[in-house]
Amino acid sequence: MKKKIIIISAIAVAVIGVIVGTIALLVSSFLVDTKNPDVSTITGTAVITLGDDEGEKGDTVKIPVDVSENGGFMASLLNFSYDSSALKYIGYEKGDVLTDYEFSEGDGSLKFLGLENEDVTDTGTLFTLKFEILTDSKQETEIKLDVEDIINYDEQSLTTTVENGKVTVK
After folding, report:
1. For the chain, what is the largest distance between any 2 Cα atoms, rounded to a whole number of angstroms?
2. pLDDT per residue over 28-86, tens digit each?
3. Cα separation of 80 and 110, whole Å?
4. Which residue in 27, 79, 143, 162 has its CB near the most CB atoms, within 10 A?
5. Residue 79 and residue 147: Cα distance in Å, rounded?
6. By the 8 A CB rule, do 54 and 170 touch?
7. What integer best gives the mean pLDDT of the chain?
């Protein structure tokens, strides 16, 4: 009889532990986020501007990608497109705003994936794209940005304004 009481008591303690843990988890999901307690500072917007550069065939041009009016984001997925008959992507230089990101290259396209540990609210250069000019015909070629998604810590998408860049071949 004592064994049954001990077993029943152990089961009751385990069930109560599971219930208390579940309640704690549910309650914590409704509390203010301790990592980002003042979500009112997130304005929900960002302006991304691609710079311009110029050069001749064989030159390396650099296109800075800057963020301003930054409401705060931690994850971003960006798609860049350019004329691959006029430009060849050769790499990037790190900027002063982001720390963790990767590029994936296709023919005339670049996919950018950035993921930070918390919302980044700084403004400045995200990174600088580097291209080699392949053509000698004098022209302007646009480098376009399509923002697939930019989200903050609370998984809210930011409204973005984009200003595309260009390369002028002299």
Report:
1. 96
2. 444 444 444 444 444 589 999 999 999 999 999 999 999 999 999 999 999 999 999 99
3. 5
4. 143
5. 6
6. yes
7. 84
CB 42 within 8 A of CB 156: yes
CA distance 77 to 12: 49
Q: Tokens standing for 147?
A: 């923002």
- Residue 73 buriedness (CB in 10 A; 0-12 / 13-18 / 19+): buried
**Order of strands, edge to edge, in the sheet holding 139-151?**
52-55, 165-169, 139-151, 73-81, 109-120, 101-106
Residue corresponding to tokens 């984001």: 73
User: Token digits for 148?
Assistant: 């697939």
Q: Please state, in angstroms and rounded to a whole number, the distance separating the CA atoms of residues 30 and 55.
A: 55
Rounded-to-integer distance, Cα 115 and Cα 118, Å: 9
Q: For 103, phi and psi rounded to 5 degrees? A: -115, 145
Residue 133 pLDDT > 80: yes
